[in-house]
Structures are given as C-alpha cells and as structure tokens.
Amino acid sequence: MILKSISNMLHTPVRFIKRIRLFVSMIRYGNEHNRDFAIEHYVFFCNLKNKLRELDVQIDSLRTLEIGCGKAYWLTLLAHSSGMNVTGIDTEFVSSKNQLSKYFSIIRDNGIERMLRTLVWDKCYAKPYYDQLAMQAPFSLNFKDVDIRRMSSTNVDFPDNTFDLVISHEVFEHIDDIDRTVLTLKRILKPGGITYIYVHNFTSLSGGHHIAWKYPDTEPSDTVPPWDHLREKSFPDIPSWLNELRESEYKKIFEEHMDIIEWLPVGKEGEKLLTPDVRAELSDYDEHELLTKGFIIIATPKT
C-alpha cells in the first residue's frame, strides 16, 4: 500500500514537480499566515455562537457534531474547551499525538501525500497555531478527552436523532455526495435540531482553492489568472479535490430535505478584478456567484 501511494505520487515527473511547487506555496503561506488562520478560526467560532444565541439556541447544552474536523480539529477543540458536548469526525485519522502509527494509518487510508502534509503541520505549524488560538480564547484549550472519530459524512455511524447541532467549516465543497450527506444530517439530527454549515463558494475568486488566491484582495496573484478555475483551468493543481457545486445546487439539495432557517452570504471578494472582459467571459454566472466568498446554511430537518 505504501509503495502504491509513492507510485501514485510520482506518476509522472511533470505531476511530481507541480505537486512540489504546490507544497512550497503552501509552506510559504503557512509561514506567513499560520497565526492569521488561528485568529480567523476563533472569529468563526464566536460568530457561530452569537448567531445561534440570536436564534435562542443555547448551544452549550447541545449534543454537537462537527463534520470534517481536519487535522487541526480547531472547531471541535474550541467547542469542547468552551464546555460543549461535541464530537468531530473526519475521513483522515486525526490525533494530537504524533506516534508513528498515526502516520502509517494516514498513508494506508489517505496516501503518502496527505501523510506528508500532516507531518509538516505537526512538526512546523501546530504549536504556533494553537498558541495563537489560545491567545484568542477567554478559556483554556483543553486537548484532553476531545472526541474525534474517523468517519465519512456519507456514512455517519450514529443512531437516528442523536444530535441537536451539526457544524462544519469549509468542508462541504470537498464532499462527493452532498445529497447523501444531507440525508444523513436529516437522520441524525433530532427534531428541531439545527445546522451551521459554512461552504466556501466554488464560483468565488478563491473558490477554486488555488493557493495563489488564498487572499485575493490583499495578495492577488500575478501568475494565476482570476477565476482561472472557471475559465481556462490552466492551473489545476490545488491542495484538495472539489465537487464544483454551485450555490444553487446546494440550495436545491438542502431544500429537498431540510427547512432553511437562514442562508447567509459571507464575504465579498474580487470586485476590482471582475473587469468587463472577464465578466463577459463568465456570463453564465451572476455577480453574486462570482463575488461572494461563501455561505452559511442554517437549517432544520423537514418533518
């Protein structure tokens, strides 16, 4: 299995060089913005709590599931540390401990490339990131007894009506079967349960997930054309796979299985880069699609 993963990574010299360049770009952005990520993540957590309080949802007492907690599991960690009863799930083996068995498990299940990225995170970025996250939070980060499980969003191994709240941050755009995932949400949420799901909008300037467009307004790319992922697709190498669903497609799926409480646009980016020529080329998309970074889905299961 390990040899197969290495073979896949080195499939062609050109692909290998492109992946190395991608890793170098990711390391550069990590070096420059690792602490910024922690600040942004804490702001998201605060916004989540504030919005649910606006809706008279007392989240501290709720049984909560995070879909796609990631190797940093920051949202699950913040929720757990603040006193919430939360479980985080991810398709990757996630652990704060850095034993060899962890990395072999990731190679076996997710490939050598994912293992290398996790190893670099653990060794280079985890401590300064968590230090910055701890500086933001008014409570201590509690790494003890964090409930993290390896599980797919399309095959959640929990009984019906288990959770009061499902949360997620920039994960749904990486899920290949959104319909099945939303059906799963409907099943595992209690009647009256609620979602707070942030989706990074694929049609936005940064929605193609090319690392060169991580900060499109403050650090615009001088190599990758704006909205390249919707135009020529000349720079297809990105950190992770995308399902490429448009906002209207998410709405259709969620409205079939859930009652939408609020559908909130989040962030606007790239307005100065949407020139008349680019706008004409992207005439199949409206300006809301092209300029809105993401959206939050607050919904409850249909009865």
How would the blueprint of this fold be written?
Blueprint: H1 2-9, H2 13-54, E1 63-67, H3 74-81, E2 85-90, H4 100-110, H5 112-136, E3 147-150, E4 163-169, H6 178-188, E5 189-200, H7 247-257, E6 258-268, H8 276-281, H9 287-291, E7 292-301
Parallel strand pairs: 1-2, 1-4, 2-3, 4-5
Antiparallel strand pairs: 5-7, 6-7
How would you classify the helix and strand content by structural class?
alpha/beta
Task: Kindly give the count of domains.
Answer: 1
Strand order in space, largest sheet: 3-2-1-4-5-7-6
Give average pLDDT, whole number: 92
Could you state the order of secondary-structure elements as H and E? HHEHEHHEEHEHEHHE
Describe the overall structure.
The protein has 303 residues and is α/β, with parallel strands linked by helices. It has one domain: Rossmann fold. Helices cover 42% and strands 18% of the residues. It contains nine helices and seven strands; from the N terminus they run H-H-E-H-E-H-H-E-E-H-E-H-E-H-H-E. The protein has helices at 2-9, 13-54, 74-81, 100-110, 112-136, 178-188, 247-257, 276-281, 287-291; strands at residues 63-67, 85-90, 147-150, 163-169, 189-200, 258-268, 292-301. The chain has a seven-stranded mixed sheet, sandwiched between helices. Strand 1 (63-67), helix 3 (74-81) and strand 2 (85-90) form a beta-alpha-beta unit. Helix 2 (13-54) runs parallel beside helix 5 and helix 4 crosses helix 5. The longest helix has 42 residues, at 13-54. The termini are far apart.
